[in-house]
Amino acid sequence: MILTRRAAIALVGAAGVAACSKPKPSRFKTYDGPPVTQIVVKKGERRLHLISGKTVLKSYDIGLGNQPIGHKMFEGDGKTPEGAYFIDRFNPRSQYHLSVGISYPDQDDVARALTYARPPGGDIFIHGRGPEGNVKAPKLRDWTAGCIAVTDEEIEEIYAMLTTGVPVFIYP
Description:
Layout (H helix, E strand, L loop, with lengths): L4 H16 L17 E5 L4 E6 L2 E7 L21 E9 L7 E4 L4 H9 L8 E4 L2 H7 L11 E2 L2 H10 L5 E5 L1
Parallel strand pairs: 1-8, 6-7
Antiparallel strand pairs: 1-2, 2-3, 4-5, 4-8, 5-6
């Protein structure tokens, strides 16, 4: 195929623009700082803290379940759990950009839900906003079904900094 001079100039120009454009940042960041030894969530303050030893490494503003006051009792109550849990999984294909799983429910949570003859629920995550959150989050601070929400940029940092087994302490 023979290119006309005009087509060749257009291709060179397009390649130049593409080379100068800012690449899309990867959602899979890396982290080489001190290990996160615990996560502390203070629901009343709407803050999440990543801690190494006694040092707070990073803190984030958070959104909670759409019924944020009180401990999660059963599936569908819109509450974010309270208590001691741990990071148990990572979801790189989350509909909320990225997500990090929290080990809710524990045995006590299951027993409590059974007293209401309801399932305890599950799939509690720290996650980004994703498509649904991008619509709701600017209007509602607490919009999840019981998860802990941060911005997509923040979940990229959190995702990189954590490993499975890190304790998560969620306070009222």
